[in-house]
Amino acid sequence: MKKRIGVLLSGRGSNFEALAESVAAGRIPNAEIAVVISNREGAPGIQRAESRGIRTSVIPSKGLEREVYDRQVAAVLDEHQVDLICLAGYMRLLSPFFVAQFPNRILNIHPSLLPSFPGLESQRQALEYGVKFAGCTVHFVDENLDAGPIILQATVPVLDEDTEATLSGKILKEEHRIYSQAVKIVLEGKYKIEGRRVLSAA
Predict the structure, then answer these.
(1) Distance (Å, rounded) from C-alpha 83 to C-alpha 66?
(2) Of residues 80, 110, 139, 176, which has the active-site annotation?
(3) With a threshold of 0.90, does the pTM exceed it?
(4) By 3-state DSSP, what share of the chain in percent is helix, strand and coil, each rounded to 5?
(5) How many domains would you assign to the chain?
C-alpha cells in the first residue's frame, strides 16, 4: 500500500517538483503524491502538477479567516486520505485546528538554518546579519511560525560576492535534496521525537 502525500503550495512549486521527481525515481519508495492544493489561482505549481497527471485543487484563501479556510483544505486532504502533508512554498500560517488534525504529519522546508531567520526573506536576513554559513531546514510544523522539531538541515557557505539571488539558488539546490530525504525518513517511521529533538530510530 503506497503512502499518500498531499502538497500545499502558493507559487512556482519547485520543491513540489523535486518531491515528484524523487517519488518517480524511487528515492521516496512506496509513495505517491495524491493531491496538490494551492491557495492561489494561477499558481505555476498547480500547472506543473497537472502536467504530471497529479490531482489538483485550488481553494482561494482571500478574505477567509484562517481556520475557516483550513477546514476546507483539511476536508480535501481527508478526501484523498493523505498520510503526510508537505508544505512547498505555502505562504500561509496554519491554524491550531489544522495542526491538531494532522499531528506530526505536516512537514515544511525553510530557507535558513532555523531557529535563525524565520519568516520571509530569510536569505536577505542572513546576508544582512553577516553569517558565514546559511542553509535550509526541514521541520515538523506546529502552530508557531517555522518552529517545529527539526528533521534535517543542510549548510552552504556565504561568499563575499553572494547576493540574495545567488545565495537563494545555492540554498534551493540543498532544499530539493534534503526535503526528499526527510520525507523518506518520516514515511518509513525511522525517527523518534524526544522533546524538540528528532532522533534516528531503526
Answers:
(1) 22
(2) 110
(3) yes
(4) 35, 25, 40
(5) 2
